[in-house]
Amino acid sequence: MRTFSNVITAGVLLLGTAWSALAAAMMGAGPEGPHVLRAVGALVLLGLASWVWSRKGSRVGAVAVVALGCAGHAFAVRSVAPSSERDWAPDLARAAHADVEGSRVTLHDVRDFRYRSTSDWDAAWYTATYDTRELTGAWFIVEPFSGFYGAAHTMVSFGFSDGRYVVFSVEVRREKGETFSAVGGLFRQFELVYVVGDERDLVQLRSNHRKDDVYLYPVKASKERISDFFLDMVARMNALHARPEFYDSLDNNCTTNLVRHFEKVSAVKVPYDHRTLLPAFSDALAYELGLIDTDAPLEVVRARHRINERALAAADQPDFSRRIREDGAQARSAP
């Protein structure tokens, strides 16, 4: 029993020290990256806890030392405030916002870049007015990417009767020279932003230039629910524009935000489970809830709505949005 208690105590000390080291390194980190030297201070914490344990024979005292250190770092992390005024990466230099008058929504700073590569583009933004009475549908977009099991980016696109489509993408707002880190996202390293853009920007960037698989699923919901969904995203976007928040890898990321919005188009509450933490499988959750096609096995539905070949064939074409939906619609209506 004593050996087991010692193992548990050692595990708690090591995990607490590791958390404190990460908090110290990531807190306030920007383009310069983690503050590694600050993390070394966590070793002092571990050394003090080890001394209390070995010299005083107190496991509780050792754990208390590390717990106090973790509490101090947690307080310091929570004291860091989000900002809308930083030296932002060029593709995130503007944050979309909207004016709402009844059913008419005027979106400002809609992104419309044209890419030659992931790092070479022609930058453009525009202002456009949409009428929620003209909404024809919503599409759930999933972009799995390599590097981490279950990792993916999720977005939502809305279509209108005049043939226009506009995409909402919940992202980290990177500073110049900064790269995304899931660990940094746990320690308030990034602000959260709603990027609103043309499909030839936000979809084509991922399918044609990053070469990631992209799945475009029509959302099964009434026009009223889709309108509520659209307006809810606009309201959240405006709230972030007025009062910035930090991205959080666990509970304030692209998929968890969409889950909250998806509840506007679902007759049932969307559960929080592993598929929101591992969004590459979020389409399976949408499938279970009946938010996307359920007329065939999930793998068939996935294959039907994978758009990469269609997106490559329609690259930069004015009817890009229509063409990436064409074959999927035909497959769904086939006998």
Q: How would you briefly describe this protein structure?
A:
This protein is an alpha+beta fold. Helix content is 43%, strand content 20%.
Percent in strands = 15-25%
What's the tally of helices?
12
What is the H/E order?
HHHHEEEEEEEEEHEHHHHHHH
Structure class? alpha+beta
Number of structural units classed as domains: 2
Mean pLDDT: 87
Q: Approximately how much helix is present in the residues?
A: 40-55%
Low-confidence stretches: none
The total strand number stands at 10
- Ends apart, CA distance between termini: 66 Å
Radius of gyration: 23 Å
* Biggest sheet: strand arrangement: 9-8-7-6-10
Overall geometric form? elongated
Q: The biggest beta sheet, please? A: 5 strands, antiparallel
Describe what this molecule looks like in 3D.
The protein has 335 residues and is an alpha+beta fold. The protein has 2 domains: 2-78; 90-333, no CATH class. It has helices spanning 2-26, 36-39, 41-56, 59-78, 199-209, 223-242, 254-262, 274-277, 282-288, 298-305, 308-313, 320-333, and strands at residues 97-101, 104-111, 114-117, 120-122, 125-131, 135-144, 152-160, 165-173, 191-197, 215-218. α1 (2-26) packs antiparallel against α3. The mean pLDDT is 87.
